[in-house]
Every structure is written in C-alpha cells, then in structure tokens.
Specification:
This protein is an alpha+beta fold and 272 residues long. The strands form 2 sheets. It has a 6-stranded antiparallel β-barrel. Strands 7-8 form a two-stranded antiparallel ribbon.
C-alpha cells in the first residue's frame, strides 16, 4: 500500500513539473491580454509572430500595440476562425503557440536605455514626421530616462510639433518627470501607429490661456507671450498653452534655427 502511495505521489509531482515546463516553454509572453494602446516588450514578440504568419507587413517591430498591430491581429483571427476583436488573449495566444509562431521567439526589448535602440527611428521632421502626424492626433510619449509615459494631442506647429497634455493626469505625469513646468530638453520616445520615433521635449506651456477658447485673441498668454492668438485647445488639462516637441532637423519658431540641445537629446533618444 505504501509503495502504491509513493508511486502515486511521484506521478503527481512529475505531471506538475511537466506542466510547468510546458507553460514556460510554450510561450514567451508574460501577460494574458494585449490590446490597442499598450506599450510592452512582449508586443514585439506578437508582431514577430504575426509577421511570420504573413499578416503583419510593417518593416519594423516595436513595443507599441498600435492600429497597425490591431489590424494584423484581426486579420490573423479571421484567418483562423477566431473572434476578430483585435485583442491578443488566451485563444489568439494558443493559436499562435499551436502554429509554432511563438515557440522560437526570443524575448528582446526593442527599446533598451543607454545603448543603441533597434526599432527607434530618428526620422526627419520635414520629409517624414510632419507627414505622419496631423493636427488632433494623440501621441504616447515615453520619457527615456524614467520610462514614464503620458499622452499628448497635436494642436499646432510648423517648424516642430506643438502639443498639449491630453488630460490633467497627463499633466501631472509631465510635471513629475520634469519637476514642474520647465524648458529643460529631455529625450523622449514618441509612439504613433506602430512607429517609435526619437524626439525631444520641454514641459513649459506657453502662448495660451486655459480659461479662454482656443483660436481666439486673448491677453496674458502663458510664458510671457502677452496678447495674441490663443494656442490652448485642450481644456481641463491643467495646462495653459502648448509645449514643444522636436524631431530630427526641426527648427525653433522664434528664429527658424535648429536648437542644439533638442537635437542632442534626439540623438540620445535614438541611441546615437
């Protein structure tokens, strides 16, 4: 009887151990659900799996789950008879596993601070970025040094992008990163679609009045700008006016010249 019991215990232990090994080897993913708007290292693994299957055709993989990734997930789900909701959950992950799309994928972080960053592009403002982002677009910004993220909306800009914090919560994160409103240039990663672009930001709001309608002529604009056009379109975000977001070869509005500190921060963001 004791021998039978001992064999039974050993079998249970073996089955449990085997299950754990399968779980560890069966997937490289650390989360149960991935969806639009997420920034996570595993997203690159999902994009690689989708690329192997032929439904993700973007030239680079990133850590951001944008609209291109969502469309690729939907195409993958339709292809294999899954609910096409664009969310990578248990069923989609299991299908990727069964097809061998995840088994050999090694976990690599597209953005690694302090070194050359694959997947991060230092794109030219004039020929590329200005044609990729439009007024009212919402961008996710990651501060390179702290890894903290926040959202901004593009509201103006010709020589560079002028943006405003999307919500008062985003403003709070911005002030936490910079230690308040500041003209300090900081390297940032800008997520738009499935592209990660090297950028540089300040956190000093200027040329706007939160309490007045955007686009009207007002007095007492922030940053000492006096009377003029009110560059404050996002209301309720605890920020008067907009802040500067620079990219490679972008210029200052005041003198149409490149800002050396911004350009250096952009190089740092790109790992150059």
């Amino acid at each position: 009887m004791k021998m039978v019991l001992r064999v039974f215990v050993l079998m249970v232990m073996f089955v449990g151990f085997s299950a754990n090994v399968w779980a560890a080897e069966g997937t490289s993913l650390s989360q149960n659900v991935y969806k639009l708007g997420m920034t996570h290292g595993d997203v690159q693994l999902i994009q690689t799996a989708l690329k192997k299957d032929g439904v993700f055709n973007h030239s680079k993989t990133t850590t951001y789950f944008g609209s291109i990734t969502k469309k690729a997930v939907e195409d993958f789900q339709k292809k294999y008879g899954l609910t096409a909701d664009g969310i990578v959950g248990k069923g989609t992950i299991s299908k990727m596993q069964s097809l061998g799309l995840l088994g050999e994928v090694k976990t690599t972080q597209a953005v690694s601070r302090g070194s050359s960053r694959s997947g991060v592009a230092a794109l030219d403002w004039w020929s590329q970025v200005s044609k990729m982002i439009d007024k009212n677009d919402v961008l996710t910004i990651e501060d390179l040094d702290t890894g903290k993220t926040f959202k901004v909306q593009v509201t103006a800009g010709t020589n560079h992008a002028d943006v405003e914090a999307l919500t008062k919560e985003d403003t709070a994160v911005i002030k936490e990163i910079w230690g308040g409103f500041s003209w300090e240039r900081r390297p940032v990663l800008v997520y738009t679609g499935d592209q990660v672009i090297a950028g540089s930001m300040t956190s000093m709001p200027h040329a706007g009045v939160e309490s007045a309608p955007g686009g009207t002529t007002v007095s007492g604009r922030s940053g000492g700008y006096g009377r003029g056009y009110n560059f404050d379109f996002v209301k309720g975000n605890a920020m008067d006016g907009h802040i500067d977001l620079h990219f490679k070869n972008s210029l200052r509005h005041k003198d149409d010249k490149a800002d050396p500190q911004h350009q250096q921060a952009i190089k740092k963001a790109a790992g150059l």
